[in-house]
Structures are given as C-alpha cells and as structure tokens.
TrEMBL record:
Any GO BP: iron-sulfur cluster assembly
Protein name: SUF system FeS cluster assembly SufBD core domain-containing protein
Region (Disordered): 1-29
Domain SUF system FeS cluster assembly SufBD core: 149-376
Organism: Phycicoccus elongatus Lp2
Coiled coil start-end: none
Domain of life, source organism: Bacteria
Similarity comment: family membership: Belongs to the iron-sulfur cluster assembly SufBD family.
Length: 406
C-alpha cells in the first residue's frame, strides 16, 4: 500500500516535500476516496496480447472521459494494410530501417497499456526503426511528416533509438485526414540528450490515438513535447520510465480545442529507480460549444525510487461558454525518502481585468485577447527549444483567435 496517494484539483505540495506552488490554482482537499485508490497505477494491465484487453465501454477509469462510441474501428483486431504517407529528412548518420513486431517484442519494449495500443502494435505489419548513432551531435532536427488521405483505419508503429551520449531533436508531424492509432517507443541510451516533438495538426475530421513510451537511460535527459491543435478526436498517452539512476524526463504540452473537438492527454511517469527527476507542464485553451479537453497526470514513486524529484502542472484557459476542461493530477508515493513531489491543476475563464487593462491603453480588443492568450502559453512555448515549432504554434494560435472573432 502506498505511503501516500492523492488525486485532486488544486495545488499540492506534500508535508516534508518541496515543490513549487501555483497561486492561481483552486482550493486543495483530500478525501477518503482520493487517499485510497481503487487500483495502483502499477497494477493496470500491460500486455502484447490483444485478448488481454476487452473492448472499452466507457465506464473504465482509463476511458471514462473518452467518447469510445466513435472508436470502434480502432478497437477491432483487424489488419487493414493502410499506411500514412511518409516524408522524412534524416541528418547524416541517422538511419530508418524496419523490424517485425515479434523482433520489437524481443527487445523488451514497454507493453501496450490499452486496447487501441495493443491492436495498433499487433496489426501494424512491422515496426519502422529510427536510429540516432552513439556520440552523434545533430545540428538539424530529424523530421518525419505523416500525412493522411482518408485511407481508412491506419495502424502505425515507430521505434526511435538514440545512442549513448548522442544529442538530437526529433520532430514527428501529423496532418491530413485519417483514423490513426499508433505505438511509439523512444529508447534513450545513457548520457544522451533528446528533444522529441509530436505535432498534431490534423484536419477537422481526423481521429488519432497514440501510446508513446519513453525509456530514459542513466544520466540521460529527455524532453517530450506534444502540440495538439487539429483533429476531431485526439488522445495521446505518454508513459516514461527509467532504466538507471540520474535520468531526467520533462513533458511539455500545448493544446487548443475548438467547437466539437475532443483533445485528451494522459501522462504516466513511473519512478522505479533512485535519484531521477521528472517535470510535467501542460497548458490548454478552449473555445466554442462542446470543445472538450482532458488531462490526466499520473506519477508513481516506487519504494526503490529514493531521491526522486517530481512535479506536474496543468492549466486550462476557457475562452467561451460551452467549453469543458477536465484535469486530474494523481500522485502515488511508496517511499518518504525523496527530494520533492507535488502537483497542481487550475482551470479558469478569460481574465476580463487583463483585457480591460490592455484596452484602456489603446490596444484593440482582438489584439488584447491575442496578447493575453500568448502570455498564458509563453512559459511552455519558450521551453520547446525548436524555433520552427514555436513559430508555427504561435501562428496557429493567432489563427484560432482570428477565426473566433469573425
């Protein structure tokens, strides 16, 4: 039984543990229901076998926010043979090959953790393998652009391996129309430094489910960035684990939901070895009737993970009536011998006082709204570290606001 488990909305820095605070977050409470979970995060099913995952009905904890009725095609254990169009730009020394699903399983890669992921892994027809060699210091990002052309259901499978002490930035972009489910494994060797960016810029009718597994080597540093702006229904599960002490994992996310969009991001950081660090920060904005976002952040600090330092933050900005944001931070601690652990969640409406302040100084309302929203996202966007992504993101946010004001 964990020493401490919390699942709350608000700011939480546990007694005796250090962590930042968020003065804008709501009140924080503990109840019997949050202190004793139905199931530890460590006990949830992980398997390579499709039969181990029944078809979700929407009442399961992992699926209760998701409109599962729209996902029947991605739950069906059927190979379609469809593929997205690939275009890649590989710096010198980086290779793209393939392996079978059975070979991928033999590597000991993390197992799928839900029905959609295990179906994607089993029916992908093979695994694309991107290798960044040891000691490489890439001066340009690796770029992979995946484009859907309404091919029907597509199962994708990508393994990214980064060698010892390599430094690399990898950008995977998604656009067009598709019903797409993916398994992605990012295996980072000892001492490497990696930034991985996943861009969801789909057309309005696209559906995208994904499981991203990040394995952090000894003294390695990994930054995983999710930018989700397009698609009708997008749900990404990002899971991080550590191979040895000294690893650092940072997860950053930015999302903007319009009317009719469902954008869902789930994080699981599994601290199973000592002296590792994690930091999660996701920010989202919503506008329009039925716009819906979901963020669930799970952090598990196992008994062996002494010296852990972890924090997670989610903030949501609701710009119009009719939008809904669900935010659930969870922290499960099995040892008190840690450096720090905390979480915070805050959801609020557009600050009319900030808008009035800017307009009173002669700034037109549409420009004032844009400045407030830009300021809200600034702390995350500035840390992405990929100028082309930062510029595209802010331009896309400006476009969203311009369309809303028409």
């Amino acid at each position: 039984m964990p020493l401490l488990t919390t699942s709350d909305v608000g700011t939480d820095v546990h007694p005796g543990l250090k962590g930042p605070t968020d003065p804008t977050a709501g009140a924080h409470t503990h109840s019997a229901a949050t202190m004793v979970p139905d199931q530890s995060r460590a006990e949830r099913t992980q398997s390579y076998a499709v039969a181990d995952f029944p078809v979700p009905h929407g009442r399961e904890e992992d699926w209760r926010f998701t409109p599962v009725a729209e996902l029947a095609a991605l739950f069906a254990d059927e190979s379609t043979g469809n593929c997205l169009d690939w275009a890649e730009q590989l710096p010198q020394g980086v290779t793209l090959t393939s392996m079978s699903v059975q070979e991928w399983q033999a590597t000991g890669a993390p197992r799928p953790a839900d029905r959609a992921a295990v179906v994607a892994a089993a029916n992908s027809g093979g695994v694309a393998v991107l290798d960044v060699p040891a000691e490489a210091e890439l001066t340009e990002p690796v770029r992979i652009n995946l484009t859907g052309d309404d091919q029907g259901v597509v199962h994708g499978h990508l393994l990214v391996r980064v060698g010892r002490h390599a430094r690399a930035t990898i950008v995977v972009g998604h656009s067009g129309t598709s019903t797409y489910s993916e398994m992605l494994t990012l295996d980072v060797a000892d001492g490497a430094q990696v930034t991985f960016v996943s861009l969801q810029e789909w057309a309005d009718d696209a559906i995208h489910l994904g499981q991203h597994d990040v394995i952090v080597g000894r003294d390695a540093s990994v930054r995983h960035i999710a930018v989700t702006l397009g698609g009708h229904l997008v749900r990404l599960n990002t899971n991080a684990s550590y191979r040895a002490p000294g690893g650092s994992f940072e997860a950053l996310g930015v999302y903007f939901a319009d009317a009719g969009q469902h954008l869902e991001h789930r994080l699981f950081v599994d601290h199973g070895v000592p002296h590792c660090r994690s930091n999660v920060e996701y920010k989202g904005a919503l506008q329009g009737e039925t716009a819906h976002t979901v963020w669930v952040g799970d952090v598990l600090i196992r008994a062996a993970a002494e010296g852990t330092d972890t924090y997670e933050l989610n903030r949501n900005l609701i710009l119009t009536e009719g939008a809904r944001a669900d935010s659930v931070p969870n922290l499960e601690i099995e040892t008190g011998q840690i450096e720090g652990a905390g979480h915070a969640s805050a959801t609020g409406r557009f600050d009319d006082q900030q808008l009035f302040y800017l307009m009173a100084r002669g700034i037109p309302e549409d420009q004032a709204r844009r400045l407030v929203v830009r300021g809200f996202f600034a702390s995350v966007v500035a840390r992405i570290g990929v100028p082309e992504v930062q510029e595209r993101l802010m331009a896309a946010i400006d476009l969203e606001l311009e369309q809303a004001s028409v």
